[in-house]
């Protein structure tokens, strides 16, 4: 057993050494598609299949998205491509309030900068990157022309969904004082050492190779196209407009606004 562990550690050391040596001037762009399984819960339990299909079509812009990750060895910018609602012909403004905004990661400084807009006010969320404690395995598979290896992690829910809200959150997070139990999400990622940068889509980073696929809860992000530039470093610029705020305070601010909206609606009905 000790011999096997030594071999694994030595192999990992070689991989990390290779990562350091070959990733000096590595940059590029990767396109990802995001697909989320629709969960109608109790609300849609009695829906017919035709009704479920209709709802899925109406929510397609929220369930299927396209993103572009621009990256170099230190920085990354993750942007969503805006889509037009197939039914109304408009952008999905309400869903946009609770979507991930333009996201900048500096993995050398472990810094997050994310632009969020809520009800006409722009926020610039500045905080530390959550350092994911990955467990790397030996299982592999091909994604396109790249050999990828599997890694898993348990990540606190609020690190993945701090910008995302629903009216149900106001009920489940009604406690203002005292400790709340922190749930963990199982994250499964596939990374390739053939692209030696510790970057990845969304909140994911820290593996010895670009993350090409990652799944958490009902959502999977899959890379569909990669353009690599080995000759020069791609310049990455962080968002810089908006009221500076931390993730915790942004969450608090939006929840307070939503409570005000709910209470105002209740007073009008009364």
Q: How big is the Rg? A: 21 Å
- The backbone outline, from C-alpha atoms, is globular
Largest sheet: 12 strands, mixed
In sequence order, what are the helices and strands, one letter per element? HEHHEEHEEEEEHHEEEEH
Strand content: 25-35%
Number of DSSP strands? 12
Mean pLDDT: 79
Oligomer: single chain
How much helix, percentage-wise, in residues?
25-40%
Task: Figure out the total of helices.
Answer: 7
Structural class: alpha+beta
Unreliable spans are 1-23, 86-96, 174-179
Quote the distance from N terminus to C terminus.
Answer: 70 Å
Fill in the keyword field for this structure:
270 residues, alpha+beta, twelve-stranded mixed β-sheet, 7 helices, 27% helix, 35% strand, disordered N terminus
Compact description:
By secondary structure, this protein is of the alpha+beta class.
Explain how this protein is built.
This protein is an alpha+beta fold and 270 residues long. Helix content is 27%, strand content 35%. The protein has seven helices and twelve strands. The protein has helices spanning 2-22, 49-58, 60-63, 93-97, 157-161, 167-172, 247-269; strands at residues 27-36, 64-71, 75-80, 103-106, 111-118, 121-128, 135-143, 146-156, 184-192, 210-216, 219-229, 243-245. It is globular, with a radius of gyration of 21 Å. It starts with a helix and ends with a helix.
